[in-house]
Amino acid sequence: MLQLFLFLLSILQSNGFLLDNGHSTGNRGTQRDINALLTEERQSRQRLESYVSELYHELSMTKQMASNLTKEYQSLKKALQTDWRNMSGCNSAKLTDESNADQCCIETQYLINNVLTIQDNIYGLLSQAITDMEDTKCKISSSTWTAVFLACANNGQSVINSWNASSSTSTTINGAVTSDASACRLKQVRSSLIDNWSKHNIDQVKVEIYKNGSVIAAFYFNGLGTNHFNWFSKENLLGTTYTDLTRSSTVNYFSIEGIEERHFYINEHFGGCPADEGWLLVRDVTGQVAPCHFDHLTKPPYFIVSPGNKKGRFESGQYILADTIEISVHTNTCKCPSPISVGTEQIIG
Ligand SMILES: *[C@@H]1O[C@H](CO)[C@@H](O)[C@H](O)[C@H]1NC(C)=O
Ligand SMILES: *[C@@H]1O[C@H](CO)[C@@H](O)[C@H](O)[C@H]1NC(C)=O
Ligand SMILES: *[C@@H]1O[C@H](CO)[C@@H](O)[C@H](O)[C@H]1NC(C)=O
Ligand SMILES: *[C@@H]1O[C@H](CO)[C@@H](O)[C@H](O)[C@H]1NC(C)=O
Ligand SMILES: CC(=O)N[C@H]1CO[C@H](CO)[C@@H](O)[C@@H]1O
To answer: Which residues, if any, are the signal sequence (predicted)?
Structure first.
C-alpha cells in the first residue's frame, strides 16, 4: 500500500504534476521534439488516470483493514484492562506508586502500556497513510486544465485589453473557452474565470502558441498566490519548451504589460534592434511606438516567437509568426478529508 503511494508520488513528480519543473529538460530543438514532449505529457496523464482506479481499490481495502484493526484494538484493550484489574494487588495499585503493587502487577501494567503505545503508533501510521492516499486521490480526481483565453493574430483586437477585462475587443463566456481557432476570427475569446482569478484555486497557468494547428512553443507558470497579470513572470516560470529560459535566466522584460505595445513580452536584452534577443512578443494594436522592423511586420495584433528551443534575434528574421495563443489554468478544487483520527486512547493514568 505504502509502496503504491510512493510510486504514485514519483509519477506525479516526474510529470510536473506537483508543480515540478518537468518541461524544460533535454536538448529539444525541433517541432517534432516539442510534439513528442506534449504527447509524452498527455500519455503520462493517461497512465496517471489508470492508477487512480487502482488507488480507489487500495484505499477501500485499507479502510476496511483499519476498521477491522480498530475493532480488534478495542477488544484487546478491554481484555487487558479486565485482566489487569483482576490481578491480586492491582486493584489498589496506582501507576505512580510502585510500592503499592506487586511485581506482577507492575509488569502487566508496563506490558499494557507498551502494547497500547505500539497500537497507537500503528494506528497513527495507518491513518496518516490513509489521509495521504485520500489526499492524492482527491488531487488527481479534482484537478483539471481549463482553457480561459484564445487570441487570434491579425483580427485588429487588442490582446492585452481582451485579457484584462470585458470590452468590445473580446467575447466573454462563462466556463471553458474553445480551442477552435475559428472562434477568435473576429474577436478574442475570454472566460469570466479570468475576472475572478483568486477564487479558483489556480495552481498552474499554461501558455501555448499555435501555428497551423500545432503547438510550437509552450510556457508553464505557477499560479498559486497570483493575480491575472503577475503569474506571467520569470519568478513563476515552471517550465517551457525553450531550453535557454529558466527562472535563473537574465531578462530585461518578462511580463504581460511589457513595454509600449510589446505585450506578453519575454526578452533577454536590448542592443539596438538587430541585437535585441528574446523568446515571445505580442505586438498589440494601439501601437504608435515602432522603433524596430519587427514592430510593424503585419496587421496587429501579431505574435512573434523564437523558432526551435532557443531565444532569437527577431530583427534578423529569427522568428515565427504564430496564428493563435491559448492560455489555460490548472485548478485544484480539492477539499481533502481526514477519514480517521489518530488513536490516542489511554488505559491507565
Ligand atoms: C475485515 O473483517 C471482515 C469481517 O470480519 C472480513 O470479511 C474482511 O475480509 C476484513 N477485511 C480486511 C481487509 O482484513
Ligand atoms: C475478572 O473480573 C470480572 C469482574 O470484575 C469477572 O466478571 C471476570 O470473570 C474476571 N475474569 C477472570 C479471567 O477472572
Ligand atoms: C485593466 O483594466 C482596469 C480597469 O478595469 C484598468 O484600470 C487597468 O489599467 C487595466 N490594465 C491594463 C494593463 O490594461
Ligand atoms: C498546415 O497544415 C495543413 C494540414 O493540416 C497542411 O496541408 C499545410 O501544408 C500546413 N502548412 C504549413 C505552412 O505547415
Ligand atoms: C464567483 C464570482 O465572483 N463570480 C464573478 C466573476 O466575474 C464576473 C464578471 O465577469 C461576475 O459577474 C461574477 O459574479
So the answer is: 1-16
